[in-house]
């Protein structure tokens, strides 16, 4: 099916026209939220569209990206990794952005929008804690009150990020319902927003949620792909053959995919978390193993049971441990413009170690899934020496050291 | 009480009867499968026999993002004990076989979508369900379910909130009136910007909000979210046609011993009924 087709599906992929006026990417997306939020979403959509046409807003965004977030991030040619897999491999170094991941791009953009809208309180959900840290960072910088919802299970495995958020002045509220991970943190953040909608801006961390969030997150993350496009042209004099990015909700992936979406020669591959293996049922591979449904305000692929109840997911990486996915990825899958694969926990862990040893870069466990797919392609002999590949290294792995030590049976105490 | 009206538009008939009897229509909520399946059936039947005007039957969902702690917990426990959207439909059928009280299902969109909109509405109609409330389905996204519900004479009931500007209330009015083939639904007025849950006070802003709704919508208005005690029912009687009581009823039943659950639910309803009469 779409997984096997090679490329020219871009004929049917109309990236420039979506989302449409109803917030749809084809049949996906939309606005499935309680009535309480509808007028807030209308207002958000209006202000977002105004901001994007406002030179002062855009100038400020670019200035802060450069002087605060540390953009542009480098596009690094990885020689030993290239040799290992048999292709010319570049890493887009989002791990070098302020706070250690691409999440700052979106938190900065939405934070500036919140400021422009006069909101004094921001809330966020977080899984691995990277989006929570990015939001807490921007709230501190802009002098806003910040509340971050985080599942108890994630608080346990990402205690370092919890402490970082508190240092940055945010209140971290533990969420004990359901699977106590990102999905439940998102429910709780939505409930907070419903309750405090008049004075609160909800900074959603991924390309998910009701319209206009997927579009807005794409807009603020596309800086990744725009930079990578210019950088690869300069380094190689041409576009890449393949771009690989990990997908949880899909914000780093849409950020690097979108500026290349109109280039049919560039293959786009998203890599989901295979957990214990897609056949075990303990995974987070929504696009690979799910079917369309509605969660957190949008129609998209969803991991659900026979009754339409949302399934508890599993991944070694808290940031990918989510049963939904951004609606634009569902559309990219449906049109065949992008394909989606999975890498399991063990493969991600091996990729983590390989990147440490080969390139002296400690990647986030999330990003390690993208590296794992690259390694798998190399091992299968699916790459050629003259092919140019970009892997989006969405974040750095300092936050994951405890998890990795655990998985490797090493005691740090 | 015209029987013909009752069969074609049971919800409208229920509101009309309450109005004729000069009282607020009371709409208790029972979560399907909570505290367990048999108890939820027994409680719903007893509430119907005790004179509830409409019964709202909750369909549990893993991610009830419009709900506060009480209904979240009830939903989670119901699912853990094997309740599902399909079983809730069967339960509705059994309840309907025992009482004439109109049944309204309240559930999130995904389990309905999963069964299939047409299939769900057909099965709901067979079970005797008169109406459907889907808290995460705003008018803009409601067209597919609206047509399926209309085909099976089920009223799709829309919500308005204090954050709905007049333009949106007008939009809800238009969609709700068009959706109702029989003109037989009601409008669910959410009392505050927030999630479901029993609260001590109704918001001071409620009369002004209801006046804004009344100015544009001729369907009966029921107020829900926060409603927890007889004094609230008396307040609601001043401004609206009905009251939905959910979390407070669940809390009351939770506090009872298993043997006293049904009696506790009935006595809770009786307490509300004592304040439902209009001056």
Give an account of the 3D structure.
The complex is a heterodimer of chains A (413) and B (279). Chain A is α/β, with parallel strands linked by helices. In chain A, 42% of the residues lie in helices and 18% in strands. Chain A has helices at residues 35-52, 55-67, 79-85, 103-116, 130-142, 152-157, 159-167, 182-196, 213-221, 223-236, 251-257, 286-289, 327-335, 345-359, 365-379, 401-407; strands at residues 24-25, 28-32, 75-77, 88-93, 121-126, 145-151, 171-175, 200-202, 242-246, 267-275, 291-295, 297-302, 338-344, 388-393. Chain A has a six-stranded mixed sheet with strand order 3-4-14-9-10-13, with helices on both faces. In chain A, strands 1-2-12-11 form a four-stranded antiparallel sheet. In chain A, strands 7-6-5-8 form a four-stranded parallel sheet, with helices on both faces. The longest helix of chain A is centred in the N-terminal third of the chain and has 18 residues, at 35-52. Chain A is globular, with a radius of gyration of 19 Å. Chain A starts with 23 loop residues before the first strand and ends in a 6-residue tail after the last helix. Chain B is an alpha/beta fold. Chain B has one domain: TIM Barrel, CATH 3.20.20. Chain B has helices at 3-8, 10-20, 37-49, 69-80, 85-98, 109-115, 117-126, 143-151, 166-179, 206-214, 230-239, 247-255, 261-273; strands at residues 25-31, 55-59, 103-107, 129-133, 155-157, 159-160, 187-190, 221-224, 242-245. Chain B has a nine-stranded parallel sheet. In chain B, β1 (25-31), α3 (37-49) and β2 (55-59) form a beta-alpha-beta unit. In chain B, α3 (37-49) runs parallel beside α13 and α6 crosses α7. The radius of gyration of chain B is 17 Å and the shape is globular. The model of chain B is unreliable at 1-6 (pLDDT under 50). Classes of the chains: A alpha/beta (413), B alpha/beta (279). Chain A binds chain B through residues 22, 30-40, 177-178, 183-184, 187, 190-191, 194-198, 293-297, 302, 304, 306-310, and chain B through 61-66, 68, 72, 76, 79, 84-86, 109-115, 135-138, 140-141, 158-161, 163-165, 168, 172, 190, 193-195.
């Amino acid at each position: 099916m779409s997984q096997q087709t090679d490329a020219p599906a871009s004929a049917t992929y109309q990236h420039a026209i979506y989302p449409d006026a109803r917030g749809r990417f084809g049949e996906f997306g939309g606005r499935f939220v309680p009535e309480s939020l509808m007028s807030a979403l209308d207002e958000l959509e209006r202000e977002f569209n105004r901001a994007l046409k406002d030179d002062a807003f855009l100038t400020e965004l670019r200035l802060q990206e450069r002087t605060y977030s540390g953009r542009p991030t480098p596009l690094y040619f990885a020689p030993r990794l290239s040799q290992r897999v048999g292709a010319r491999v570049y890493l887009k170094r989002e791990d070098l952005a302020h706070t250690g991941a691409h999440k700052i791009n979106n938190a900065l953009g939405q934070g500036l929008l919140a400021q422009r809208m006069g909101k004094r309180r921001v809330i966020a959900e977080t899984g691995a804690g990277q989006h929570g840290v990015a939001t807490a960072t921007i709230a501190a910088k802009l002098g806003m009150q910040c509340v971050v919802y985080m599942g108890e299970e994630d608080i346990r495995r990402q205690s370092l990020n919890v402490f970082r958020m508190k240092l940055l002045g945010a209140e971290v509220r533990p969420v004990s319902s359901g699977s106590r991970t990102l999905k439940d943190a998102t429910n709780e953040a939505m409930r907070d927003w419903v309750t405090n909608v008049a004075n609160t801006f909800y900074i959603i961390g991924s390309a998910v949620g009701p319209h206009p969030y997927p579009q807005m997150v794409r807009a603020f993350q596309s800086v990744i792909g725009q930079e990578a496009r210019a950088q690869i042209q300069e380094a190689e004099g041409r576009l890449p053959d393949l771009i690989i990015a990990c997908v949880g909700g899909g914000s780093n992936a849409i950020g690097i995919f979108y500026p290349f979406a109109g280039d049919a020669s560039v293959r786009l591959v998203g890599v989901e978390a295979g957990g214990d293996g897609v056949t075990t049922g303990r995974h987070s591979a929504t696009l690979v193993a799910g079917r369309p449904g509605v969660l957190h305000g949008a129609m998209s692929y969803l991991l659900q049971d026979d009754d339409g109840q949302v399934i508890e997911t599993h991944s070694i990486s808290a940031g990918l441990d989510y049963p939904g996915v951004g609606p634009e990825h569902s559309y990219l899958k449906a049109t065949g413009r992008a394909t989606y694969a999975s890498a399991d926990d063990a493969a991600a862990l091996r990729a983590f170690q390989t990147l440490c040893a080969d390139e002296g870069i400690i990647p986030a466990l999330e990003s390690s899934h993208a590296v794992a797919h690259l390694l798998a392609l190399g091992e299968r002999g699916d790459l050629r020496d003259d092919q140019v590949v970009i892997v989006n290294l969405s974040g750095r792995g300092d936050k994951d050291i405890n998890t990795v030590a655990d998985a490797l049976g090493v005691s740090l105490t | 009480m015209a029987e013909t009206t009752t069969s074609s538009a049971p919800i409208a008939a229920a509101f009309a009867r309450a109005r004729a009897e000069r009282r607020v229509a009371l709409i208790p909520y029972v979560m399907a499968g909570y505290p367990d399946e048999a108890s939820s059936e027994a409680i719903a039947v007893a509430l119907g026999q005790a004179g509830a005007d409409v019964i709202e039957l909750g369909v549990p969902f893993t991610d009830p993002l419009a709900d506060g702690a009480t209904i979240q917990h009830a939903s989670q426990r119901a699912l853990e004990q094997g309740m599902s959207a399909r079983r809730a439909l069967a339960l509705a059928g059994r309840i309907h076989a025992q009482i004439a009280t109109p049944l309204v299902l309240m559930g999130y969109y995904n389990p309905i979508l999963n069964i299939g909109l047409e299939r769900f509405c057909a099965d709901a109609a067979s079970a005797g369900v008169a109406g459907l409330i889907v808290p995460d389905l705003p008018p803009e996204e409601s067209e597919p379910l609206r047509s399926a519900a209309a085909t099976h004479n089920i009223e799709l009931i829309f919500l308005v909130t204090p954050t709905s500007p007049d333009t949106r209330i007008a939009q809800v009015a238009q969609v709700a009136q068009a959706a109702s083939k029989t003109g037989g639904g009601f409008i669910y007025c959410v009392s505050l910007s927030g999630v479901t849950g029993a609260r001590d006070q109704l918001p001071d802003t409620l009369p002004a909000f209801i006046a804004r709704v009344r100015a544009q919508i001729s369907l009966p208005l029921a107020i829900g979210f926060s409603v927890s005690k007889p004094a609230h029912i008396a307040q609601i009687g001043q401004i609206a046609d009905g009251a939905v009581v959910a979390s407070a009823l669940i809390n009351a039943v939770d506090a009872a011993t298993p043997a006293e659950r049904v009696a506790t639910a009935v006595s809770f309803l009786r307490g509300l009924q004592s304040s439902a009469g209009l001056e």
